[in-house]
Amino acid sequence: MNGKNIIASEYVDANEKSLHAINPATGVAIDGDFFKANEKLVNDALTSATEAFQLYRSVNKDLKAAFLNTIADEIAAITDELVKRASAESGLPMARLQGEVGRTTGQLRLFANLIAEGSWVDATIETAQPERQPLPKPDIRRMMIPIGPVVVFGASNFPLAFSVAGGDTASALASGCPVVVKAHPAHYGTSALVAAAILNAVEKTKMPKGVFSMLYDDGYEIGAALVKHPQTKAVTFTGSFKGGMALVKLADEREQPIPVFAEMGSINPIVFLPQALQHQAAELAKKYAASITLGAGQFCTNPGLMMAIESAELTTFKKTLSEAIAAIPSATMLTGGIAHNYNKLAAEVINDDKATILGISTLKDKDLQNQSQALVAEISAADFIAHPKFREEIFGPYSLLVVAKNLTELEAVISSLDGQLTATLMAGADELKDYKSLVNKLTDKTGRLILNGVPTGVEVCAAMQHGGPFPATNDSRFTSVGSAAIYRFVRPLAYQDWQQELLPDELKDGNPLNIYRTVNLKLTKVDE
Amino acid sequence: MNGKNIIASEYVDANEKSLHAINPATGVAIDGDFFKANEKLVNDALTSATEAFQLYRSVNKDLKAAFLNTIADEIAAITDELVKRASAESGLPMARLQGEVGRTTGQLRLFANLIAEGSWVDATIETAQPERQPLPKPDIRRMMIPIGPVVVFGASNFPLAFSVAGGDTASALASGCPVVVKAHPAHYGTSALVAAAILNAVEKTKMPKGVFSMLYDDGYEIGAALVKHPQTKAVTFTGSFKGGMALVKLADEREQPIPVFAEMGSINPIVFLPQALQHQAAELAKKYAASITLGAGQFCTNPGLMMAIESAELTTFKKTLSEAIAAIPSATMLTGGIAHNYNKLAAEVINDDKATILGISTLKDKDLQNQSQALVAEISAADFIAHPKFREEIFGPYSLLVVAKNLTELEAVISSLDGQLTATLMAGADELKDYKSLVNKLTDKTGRLILNGVPTGVEVCAAMQHGGPFPATNDSRFTSVGSAAIYRFVRPLAYQDWQQELLPDELKDGNPLNIYRTVNLKLTKVDE
User: Fold this and answer.
1) Is A248 in contact with B256 (Cβ distance < 8 A)?
2) Interchain CB distance below 8 Å, A449 and B248
3) Are A493 and B457 an interchain contact pair (Cβ–Cβ within 8 Å)?
4) What DSSP character marks residue B154?
5) Cβ partners under 8 Å of residue A436, min gap 6
6) Is B275 an 8 Å CB contact of chain A?
7) Of the candidates B252, B465, B477, which has its C-beta nearest A142's C-beta?
8) pLDDT tens track of chain B, all 528 residues?
9) Phi/psi of residue A19, nearest 5 degrees
10) Looking at this predicted complex, what is its ipTM?
11) Does the distance separating the beta carbons of B256 and A470 come in below 8 Å?
């Protein structure tokens, strides 16, 4: 495995310190040397990305699609090695990572299909009316064009699907933007393996080499330099509120502002309505015990908050949940830092008078490091509303059940919440229509509303919205999952009275690419 | 005319100082008392807007369209009074303002049609696949929803089309967002007349009253308080770089960041290619003398920069331009401040060794105040590139001709430019294809490329893009002119496994609204 930094698809030497990956379950370094980047490499990466942008943006859409599909092929070809390495670096089970390889290659192919089809550019054409009074109408044609080099921060909790060739990279490359990845320090080796797959694809499909660079760092210096570089045109990040807002602040301070897409987590409230509990209190408790602890709770859609009105059925729910949580084995967290933080915050809840422990997993494996025990606590609606600290995310296998005396209190709990990625309602067959005010309140807080499901497991598709009101993300107008994620990296350009032969194919008369276009207010594939 | 502040469609008293409109041509106050708002009114406006939002967002799309059309009707009904008042307050000619009434009502009707048709919400549906392996696929349906109260700053240079019921207000109301207008101090009376028309429309169409408020101020205090208010969800502004960036900074400092859409002007470069000058040097000079001085040059699309390679034909162009500019009558500028600033900056150019005066209008009317004389200057490409001050906008009837020795120097001039709203190429019939590198460089600098036209006169249509790379606007991904302006005020919401009867009509099975939707990746009006 080659652990050197990558500039314009080539490995380069850096004379800074060498870095090593750590197995979080054992605390022991894993084989492989990686190298801290420096300011010169940051500049080289953005300079080569800017140069490559002028070529790459003009690459035919089918060739760009072939590039994305080839990255997917190259990743699929090293699945076994990748899953093994990612598991050692992240503590995540092999089966989960096997699935994540599938999601990662699936995302690349989804974007390949999107751009090969071609209609995503939102071509809008209004033809000239030279005779119009009082003034003639010009011919105006608009489409989306890429904005330039995108800096992608690898995420700790998805070493594949939100990392080197994850959804951010796939959507940026699909849009026509070169990518500079800042590898996540929790999985250097996984990053190096995926980067090598991208390098193979760049070579096989003859892409401009500056379309991909990747830098290593064990601190914040390289990331900050990437965000501040004048040639960076957008930044993507998935991680903590603190980390995301630090990048937003750096971007705000630039001479030329750029968009930062920071997905900063969320507590993903679940509302259990009375009928839902009446019919299936025990089943729901089991279902949620599994969702709360899936992947050691290290999902941005982890259900960190549950709420219900007190009732006999809620008592059954609590009892079953308590037993189910107690039976969950402890699990290795992604990094020492994440484990330390989880255990600290969980202890604070345990020691807080206002919260009662509902369930805690006790099967701690003493031989392994960085373990997390699942924890579910209970609090009254009044205490929850009065103490904002309970609304903060605790990243890990944790959830808080808020018990309200009545519907008014339940709605007050919802009103007290910050913005969320998801909000879920568990309801009986004919119950939801009686809770319109509650649903409206939830709608204002979230980017995705779920009925009778669990928020974990984010379907990668055209209709997905993964991005909610602040602080779940810093810009709720965009999604980081699904094909609409491509719109983060484009801007509209209008051509007025432009020469036919020099227009992009997407905008030419006769629609040579056979894409959907809005022509004189009519959505069509056929010119009239 | 009622000059009181308006909260939730009702006139309210304010005990702050009274304000008066000034006729810029005479310096004399015009009749009518207006009243400086205060912090309490800011809070009242946003509180009532937030309350009204919950009702207004759910108002049927045809009723919302009727509301917009009624505002247009009410404005059209007072055209004569409005044009007279706006002319007295702005110094703009009646004919221009007559046209601007048409544009304003046209914009309102454009958005009414857009929302009545309904497809703009970008409904995207993926139906469930319960049998899918390894995991079932849920039913996911996404559409755009409004974000909440929008603060609209009236612009000085479009007292109607970018003011109280201008494009920002029309697109925000169309999206489902209530509006709070900060009236521009240069045209209190025009603002009051248009606001009264909106109040009539609110009453006639029975809209929630909090959907519209308007506040007066002669300074920055009220504007700043509106941007900082926690219930404000977006801000629109058209004006100076300094003014726009001050609002962006205030928004960045909020606890909860919100989008600011600031259109901050541009020098709108024009490139004259050799053949264009060979065939029509004199005609082009006349055409551009008219474009530079239209409306005293007070357009964000005013051609403030022209460039060409030196040639005999360029000499002809310069001679004709010089004569044409000299023959332009001086004109009243919008405000004393704008006139002062223009005359100061024009004098600086005149006194600068590096610039030569090409043409200056000499027909100054000594009886009128706040007059501007048109000015066109010339500079070498080398000096232009070396001195950034020449790249700054001089708001008024001014343009600078940059003369390059050759194509390389011409491209270097383009590379030195900041982001622009528009960029124009004047080219011979078969010439453009030889300048691909130059066109690529221009493309990166602008939101709209124009061939053989003038940038002034922005067509209000579905294909328009009015928004370019920084500093022309702070966010080039959006437009402030044309129907796509509605997308500034919405965010996507996804429903997962939601109950049919409780879905918005836009997302229901059977497509009851008969809109275009993307259903299982197919764009269609028919479910399958």
Assistant:
1) no
2) no
3) no
4) P
5) none
6) no
7) B465
8) 999 999 999 999 987 789 999 999 999 999 999 999 999 999 999 999 999 999 999 999 999 999 999 999 999 999 999 999 999 999 999 999 999 999 999 999 999 999 999 999 999 999 999 999 888 999 999 999 999 999 999 999 999 999 999 999 999 999 999 999 999 999 999 999 999 999 999 999 999 999 999 999 999 999 999 999 999 999 999 999 999 999 999 999 999 999 999 999 899 999 999 999 998 999 999 999 999 999 999 999 999 999 999 999 999 999 999 999 999 999 999 999 999 999 999 999 999 999 999 999 986 778 899 999 999 999 999 999 999 999 999 999 999 999 999 999 999 999 999 999 999 999 998 899 999 999 999 999 999 999 999 999 899 999 999 999 999 999 999 999 999 999 999 999 999 999 999 999 999 999 999 999 999 999 998 876
9) -120, 155
10) 0.96
11) yes
* Contacting B residues, span 473-492, partner chain A, CB-CB under 8 Å: 474-477, 479, 484, 490-492
Is A51 an annotated catalytic residue? no
- For residue B265, count CB atoms less than 10 angstroms from its CB and return exposed for 0-12, middle for 13-18, buried for 19 or more: buried
Interchain CB contact of B59 with A (< 8 Å): no
Contact call for B252 and A256, based on CB within 8 A: no
Per-residue buried b or exposed e for A346-371, using 16+ beta carbons within 10 Å of the residue's own CB? beebeeeebbeebbbbeeeeeeebbb
> How many angstroms away from the CA of A420 is the closest CA of chain B?
12
Measured between beta carbons, which residues in chain A are less than 8 angstroms from residue B499? 432, 451
Query: Residue B422: which of B459, B453, B447 has the closest Cα?
Result: B447
Which residue, among B516, B483, B512, has the nearest Cα to B68 in the 3D structure?
B483
Residue (of B73, B56, B101, B33) closest to B197 by Cα position: B73
Q: Could you give the CA distance from residue A221 to residue A227 in angstroms, rounded to a whole number? A: 10
Distance to chain B for A451, nearest Cα, Å: 5
From the list A10, A17, A123, the residue with the least C-alpha distance to A61 is A123
- Minimal CA separation from A209 to chain B, in Å: 20
List CB contacts (< 8 A) between A101 and chain B: none
In this structure, chain A runs to a length of: 528
Residue A403 is inside which H or E element, if any?
Answer: strand A398-404
The label of the residue with tokens 């009502």 reads: B105
Residue reference for tokens 């309801």: A427
**Beta strand residue intervals within B108-149, DSSP E:** 124-126, 140-146
B131: annotated active-site residue: no
Residue A438 in contact with partner chain B when CB distance is under 8 A: no
Instruction: Name, in order, each residue with C-beta under 8 angstroms of A83's C-beta and a sequence gap of 6 or more.
Output: A94, A97, A98, A101
Stretch 226-255 of chain A: residues touching chain B, C-beta under 8 Å: 248, 252
* 442-471 of A, contacting B, C-beta below 8 A: 443, 446-453, 457, 459, 461-465, 467, 469-471
Place of tokens 């004006």: B239
| Chain centre distance of CA B512 | 35
What pTM does this model have? 0.96
* d(CA A104, nearest CA chain B) in Å: 15
- Kindly determine whether residue B447 and residue A492, on different chains, have CB atoms separated by under 8 Å: yes
Q: Nearest Cα to A276, choosing from A238, A313, A331?
A: A313
Q: At residue B316, what is the residue type?
A: T
